[in-house]
Known about the structure:
Layout: E1 2-7, H1 30-52, E2 57-65, E3 75-84, E4 89-96, H2 99-103, H3 105-120, E5 124-129, H4 141-148, E6 162-169, E7 172-180, E8 189-194, E9 197-201, H5 203-211, H6 216-230
Parallel strand pairs: 1-7, 4-5
Antiparallel strand pairs: 2-3, 3-4, 5-6, 6-7, 8-9
Helix pairs in contact: 1-5, 3-4
Amino acid sequence: MRACGRRLDSGSKLDETIPVPIHDWTKTYDGAFHYFHVSWLVKITDALNDGMLPPGYYALGEQVIGGAVPDVLTLRPRVIAIRHRSGDHLVAMVEIVSAGNKADAAEMGALIEKTVVTLSRGVHVVLIDLHPPGPNDPEGIQNLVWRELGEKPLPLPAARPLLCVSYLSRRSVTCFVEPRAVGERLPDMPLFLTPAVHVALPLERTYQATFDSLPAHLRGQLGRDSEKRAR
């Protein structure tokens, strides 16, 4: 499978009229992002099903079992599956990367393998990673996928370590990369349904709606930190 990459990199910065930029999720505990993560997936799914998808397509959250013995904490919706009513076949997936994915080498390996296998089956993928690179992805999660596809890593700006990546899968794989930093706005990424058809994944407005549902003390803590970073 051949692959080619493109940096969208629109350079969109925090606008003074936009109240909710990307927050620094390293400033709070993992459980807070877990709640945010799950709630954000629901908001994105609802937006897609509320007239954003063309006729015949629908989106549903899917559960991912983590660890050898599933329990309440490891059985969680982490993936949005977009399917077509004709046979309910899978056409695209959206995944929000968690801190747990990145902290554990086995979890990271499983995520990369799943992404590459999904692409090899002609299913399009969007990955959203709001956590900075760590020991298990020093060049960013996109370049782990890229290396697994046999490609050279893409140069990504160190000052903008957060990534939104849309993958178009046909005979080859094309990636569209939007680097971001804390304090910047999220892009609306292309979500491919076919090689010729895509919709704009509403990341920014669903992120804001999800953030607004957090407890007030967490909104205050994360909001103050992001405002300082954006200045």
